[in-house]
């Protein structure tokens, strides 16, 4: 099947700095993307999503960018806080799939250093 | 809290045991999911139920048997598991729109399963 992957397994940033987490996808038919945050001992938590007809979407301190040309997705977190420490992973969905169409990446562990 | 609870949180079982994982959602959703999360691997969808009917089954071994008695409860019955089945088993629920693909899924905390 198609793969969704993250470039870096671990990302360490200073508290207060901005962080960027990247995700590559290979299925050009993917039309919906989601970022999840998973803290230790908890299940994944929805952060933000974006549809393929958009290039950018902003939430509270988070921005997702979608570059369909190079099949790249990124999550930007502004002014990182200790509570942002978690594993972040992206998921993609493609047309023609049912719930099975949801494919997850492996995850990037974001570490916020004081 | 996400409104999705799972019990037990931790389970250790032998290969000959029979156990069940339970998931309950308090969100009024109509769709529920079972996922397997292994170390250093992406989340794997196992089963999907919509309005208590199974709509997806991703070639999961028969030693995993799901049950959805109503829209609020989901079970995963386990029997004769293998050590490689050790993982975090996550339950999720979603509203259950016509197009499940775009439903936002809310996850429970998971059950950490260890098979000896």
Structural topology:
The complex is a heterodimer of chains A (114) and B (116).
Chain A: E1 4-5, E2 10-14, E3 19-25, E4 30-38, E5 45-51, E6 56-58, E7 62-67, E8 72-77, E9 86-94, E10 103-104, E11 108-113
Parallel strand pairs in A: 2-11
Antiparallel strand pairs in A: 1-3, 3-8, 4-5, 4-9, 6-7, 7-8, 9-10, 9-11
Chain B: E1 4-7, E2 10-13, E3 18-25, E4 31-37, E5 44-50, E6 53-57, E7 64-70, E8 73-79, E9 87-94, E10 106-107, E11 111-115
Parallel strand pairs in B: 2-11
Antiparallel strand pairs in B: 1-3, 3-8, 4-5, 4-9, 5-6, 7-8, 9-10, 9-11
Task: Label this structure with key terms.
heterodimer, A: 114 residues, 0% helix, B: 116 residues, seven-stranded mixed sheet, four-stranded antiparallel sheet, 11 strands, globular
How would you describe this protein?
- The complex is a heterodimer of chains A (114) and B (116).
- Chain A contains no helices and eleven strands.
- By secondary structure, chain A is mainly beta.
- Chain A is globular.
- In chain A, 35% of the residues are buried.
- Chain A has strands at 4-5, 10-14, 19-25, 30-38, 45-51, 56-58, 62-67, 72-77, 86-94, 103-104, 108-113.
- In chain A, strands 2, 4, 5, 9, 10 and 11 form a six-stranded mixed sheet that branches. Chain A has a five-stranded antiparallel sheet with strand order 1-3-8-7-6, with no helix packed on it.
- Chain B is an all-beta fold.
- Helices cover 0% and strands 55% of the residues of chain B.
- Chain B contains no helices and eleven strands.
- Chain B has strands at residues 4-7, 10-13, 18-25, 31-37, 44-50, 53-57, 64-70, 73-79, 87-94, 106-107, 111-115.
- In chain B, strands 2, 4, 5, 6, 9, 10 and 11 form a seven-stranded mixed sheet that branches. In chain B, strands 1-3-8-7 form a four-stranded antiparallel sheet, with no helix packed on it.
- Chain B is globular.
- The termini of chain B are far apart.
- The model of chain B has no long low-confidence stretch (mean pLDDT 91).
